Amino acid sequence: MSERMLDLRPSVLVKLKGTALLDSIRAAEGRTILCEMVCPMMSMLYDVSNPELAAGLGADIVLLNVYDVYKPAVFGIIPNQHESVIEAIKRLSGRVVGINLEPVAENAEIMGDKEELSVGRQANRATARLAYEQGASIITLTGNPEVGVDNTTIQKAIAEIRDELGSDIVIIAGKMHSAGIKGESGGNIITEDVVEKFLTAGADIILVPAPGTVPGITLDFVKRICDFVHSQGALVMTTIGTSQEGADTDTIKQIALYSKMAGADIHHIGDAGYAGFAIPENILAYSIAIRGRRHTFRRMAMRV
Hints:
Layout: H1 10-13, H2 18-27, E1 32-38, H3 50-56, E2 61-65, H4 85-93, E3 96-101, H5 125-133, E4 138-141, H6 151-165, E5 170-174, H7 192-201, E6 205-209, H8 219-231, E7 235-239, H9 249-262, E8 266-269, H10 280-301
Parallel strand pairs: 1-2, 1-8, 2-3, 3-4, 4-5, 5-6, 6-7, 7-8
Helix pairs in contact: 3-10, 5-6, 6-7, 8-9, 9-10
């Protein structure tokens, strides 16, 4: 029987990958916290990096946004000699580490001005391979605002990266908001048909906005998606990607409980509290809401 994510010590967490990582998340029964942060932005605490802060507040998984595999850097992280940036984060935080890669649709009709991505942030075989070699256990295929990521390009990227890395990497796929695509906003962000295509292409975990974070994304909507994904043997990550990670703690706790009721296996907290990192109190509040003080404080206090 797999050990639950919330029971594992940092020395074990940093080594998890592939099926073992998925089994550990599944065994935790909706009590896994993933905290996202923007790599180039200044640390919230000047001499403590944001990945370390996330770990100290109870996150099980750290997700790096705006990470460029060709110019790898995270503010406040200084690797040792012969150590990658991601390996340094694992050493300092004792957490599973993943990165975002973005499958950009070349001819997508964007709402507003399109942001041009550096090559090292785009999703393809080469960037995925480099991310894995640098130490990433998870690749999340999603899109930042105004980038122009659509579900068709996500599907293609899933298949390409799965073919490149096999079962060694965990692939999360989906969108937290429209990413600028006119036809994929609100309730059109994700459908059962899209989910089926993602899973067939090789996704392990389906990303869906948490209830109350995107217009039209209700508790019933998310539960229907969760039920379908679980029936296919895969997992779901609900996300706060709409700056509500900077809302009051009562709002955060409500989102947390709705996400758990819907069936979330992983609870994502976004990177836009003030800028680049969630409000620290909200990470703590979310964790306590879904797993109580015992498991939250234990995760916070475990020695690296």
